[in-house]
Amino acid sequence: AQTVTQSQPEMSVQEAETVTLSCTYDTSESNYYLFWYKQPPSRQMILVIRQEAYKQQNATENRFSVNFQKAAKSFSLKISDSQLGDTAMYFCAFMKGETSGSRLTFGEGTQLTVNP
Amino acid sequence: GAVVSQHPSRVICKSGTSVKIECRSLDFQATTMFWYRQFPKQSLMLMATSNEGSKATYEQGVEKDKFLINHASLTLSTLTVTSAHPEDSSFYICSARTSLNTEAFFGQGTRLTVV
């Protein structure tokens, strides 16, 4: 079974600064996907960024980037130029890369607060 | 991105009654839908996975007779909480995926309060 661990229950950052959220996972699978989801106060889950395990290049989406260390099973999220709207719960998630029926396994979440 | 509509967003029901929550994929065919439960400040807990036209697969510890899931079409799945009790009060979220896409799209969630 897969496990996803987020060791930082809460973090805060000043507006315009950079913050990194940590995530580690455990799996014996060779083909899988990793995700970061954002859940703002509205509680709507929003995909932030996705990484395919077979890709060595780290994924980037505008101000969001990941540091994917496959051997270490680490998948951290870096948010640059933090904005007030980034305040949310962030979940790291794992999915086996087999079929559409593959489930997402979520970490415990990190509550990020961006301060003005 | 694709849109998943979940309805209602909030519902209050009396203990002992049943309540149905709908999850619709508006602009794509969802071959697989997932139902989650989320307690305050906690992660999403998968309750069940359903494929169109098949019986749902429930996670260990989830009562299939209490949480009835129907996925009768490629655009609609329903979760019915039967004989609801106050301990069933929670936030329920659905998500949907196609067979061609790794991304799961989420509904807005339903806050259920049983009084």
Q: Which structural class do you get from the secondary structure elements of chain A?
A: mainly beta
Largest β-sheet summary of chain A: 6 strands, mixed
- Tell me, briefly, the overall form of chain A: globular
Radius of gyration of chain B: 13 Å
Number of strands of chain B: 11
Q: Report on the biggest sheet of chain B.
A: 7 strands, mixed
Report on this structure.
The complex is a heterodimer of chains A (116) and B (115). With 116 residues, chain A is mainly β. Chain A has strands at residues 3-5, 10-14, 19-21, 24-26, 32-39, 46-52, 60-61, 64-69, 74-79, 88-96, 104-106, 110-115. In chain A, a hairpin with a 2-residue loop joins strand 7 (60-61) and strand 8. The N and C termini of chain A lie far apart (41 Å). Chain B is mainly β and 115 residues long. Chain B is 0% helix and 52% strand. Chain B has strands at 4-7, 10-13, 19-25, 32-38, 44-51, 57-58, 67-73, 76-81, 90-97, 105-106, 110-114. In chain B, the strands form two sheets. In chain B, strands 2, 4, 5, 6, 9, 10 and 11 form a seven-stranded mixed sheet that branches. In chain B, strands 1-3-8-7 form a four-stranded antiparallel sheet, with no helix packed on it. The interface between A and B is medium-sized, with 22 and 26 residues.
